[in-house]
Write a structure and sequence with these properties.
- The chain has about 120 residues and is an alpha+beta fold.
- It has a four-stranded antiparallel β-sheet with strand order 2-5-1-6. Strands 3-4 form a two-stranded antiparallel ribbon.
- Strand 3 and strand 4 form a beta hairpin.
- The chain is globular and about 50 Å long.
- The two termini are about 20 Å apart.
């Protein structure tokens, strides 16, 4: 089963890290990712840019409304995600626990099963 491991935290806190702090966190995360990759179980890993770079299209009764920034104000923002092929939910939880230890900036990890609707064409 494919799982999305969604990372949330206050992006303002994460964006205050020095380059050295950010690089160290990315190195720790890479070690956890490498463990899953060596098992052939790691899919795409995505780090989102800050919500200040986001654009939201909101459906209305007329023409869609285009807004700068995120759709909703929240204390934690969606920072990125991992895709992992885990045999059980327990395995996905263990992976998320390892990520949480490696990433002091993560406030929460949401673990959600995935269904491939359409595999896509961009060949990442």
């Amino acid at each position: 089963m494919l799982y999305a491991i969604l990372c949330y935290n206050d992006e303002k806190a994460v964006s205050t890290w020095s380059k050295e702090e950010d690089d160290a966190c990315m190195m720790r995360l890479a070690q956890v990712e490498d463990g899953m990759a060596q098992k052939g179980k790691l899919g795409p890993v995505v780090r989102l840019q800050n919500t200040t770079a986001a654009t939201t299209l909101r459906k209305t009764s007329g023409a869609p409304l285009i807004l700068d920034g995120p759709f909703a104000e929240t204390k934690e923002q969606f920072l990125g995600f991992f895709v992992a092929d885990c045999d059980t939910l327990d395995e996905a939880i263990a992976f998320a626990k390892d990520l949480a230890v490696a990433n002091p900036g993560a406030g929460a990890y949401e673990i959600r099963p995935l269904s491939i609707f359409k595999p896509g064409t961009i060949g990442l």
